[in-house]
Amino acid sequence: MNAYDIFLTLHSWIRWIILVLGIIAIIKAYAGWFGNKPYTKGDNGISGAFMGTLHLNLLIGLILYIFLSPIVEAAFNDFGAAMGNADLRFWAVEHILVNVIAVIVAQVGRSKAKKAIDDVRKHKLTAIFYTIAFILLLSRIPWGETERLFRW
Is 46 within 8 Å of 27 (Cβ atoms)? Predict the structure, then answer.
């Protein structure tokens, strides 16, 4: 197994951790928002875990993108042709761009929530920003390519 395969496998499996943590964080945020509940250490912990895994996977993805991916390398060898190929365009532009935006949206939400004084506002900000980020993340997972969903 070479470095590309190792990083790609890590990137693929961490995605599932992100999805689970994201679902939990979003459900807790909506429950806190609409239930008028206090923002607890548990809420902060799950939010931090979600953000931590997002950042870790972004770092792994950037290493893949910049240094290791033969798909990205092929796309940049003839970028004009790659933009005409839906698969190459997905990996060279769409996947990374939308996922970076998703991480930024989630981080902005976390930062705003941490600065908020009111607990319900913390939940509301977390719910809104994490939901947007989560939808963006879901839109860039290659759902139709089952071999990419579970790498070994």
Answer: no
pTM for this prediction: 0.94
- What one-character-per-residue DSSP string does the chain give? --HHHHHHHHHHHHHHHHHHHHHHHHHHHHHHHHTT----HHHHHHHHHHHHHHHHHHHHHHHIIIII-HHHHHHHHTHHHHHTSHHHHIIIIIHHHHHHHHHHHHHHHHHHHHH-SSHHHHHHHHHHHHHHHHHHHHHTS-TT-HHHHS--
User: Tokens 């790498």 — which residue?
Assistant: 151
For 100-125, what is each residue's pLDDT tens digit? 999 999 999 999 999 999 999 999 99
Nearest residue to 18 (alpha-carbon basis) of 99, 109, 120: 99
Quick: pLDDT tens for 40-73: 999 999 999 999 999 999 999 999 999 999 999 9
Measured CA to CA, the distance from residue 41 to residue 20 in angstroms comes to 19
